Fold this protein.
Amino acid sequence: MSEGPITEPVKVSNGSADGRGTDAGNTNAGNDDSGTTKPADDAAEPKPKRQMSRGTRIALVVILVIAVLAGGGVTAWYFIDAQNYVSTDNAQIDGDRISVNAPTSGTVIDWQATEGSQLRQDQVVGRIRIQGAFVQPEMAVRAPGDGTVAVNNAVEGTYVTAGTELAIAYDFSNIYVTARVDETDIDDVRPGQVVDIDVDAFPGHEFRGTVREVQGGAAGVFSVFPESNTSGNFQKVTQVIPVKISIENPEGLGIVPGMNVTVNIHKN
């Protein structure tokens, strides 16, 4: 029996052997005819910046002008003040200090100089009983001047050594101001100049005074521990010169030593 003719399967382009085609070429069906993809929506345009209102701009200009004027006013006031006054707040109410000291070592007895009591020169304010084997003599403690006791350090019956400060008194009828003026300004200060005095304890009350004395040396020279410039770590510091200023109108307001003061010394 003879064999029939052998037939080969027909190849179909883009298809399988059984002749079924694929849709591979149609994957871009959603594309347009030109073969390019449709662009995405344009990005949102940025919103324009909000313009500053006319009223706001005017307010800012007004504030700037006020600030400039205020700064100029302060500068002008400082310049005028520096031209007409020597000013310092490094000042206190002061007075002639009267120290009542123990004349010898011994026990304090009959003490009478309490705070606020009035003293007269050579007044006996107490006694010191000298310690001895059989006889115990007493020596009087006298006030060296007139004044009012401001500090009382003595305690009845206690033992003290010679020279112990038992009390401190001031003559309140002779109260003055001690102002410490920078050495760079002291050339403009002379006795007799008028002074405006502001006492912190009496705000709003204007006191008047006059320069009485200008001390002939810096305050640091007369301190208990004066500064020494012999070391290698010297640092220059502006010194102050004590100036004594009398108070012309205390008016019985109870001004006492130690109160803080601001002084303005008239240059002219």
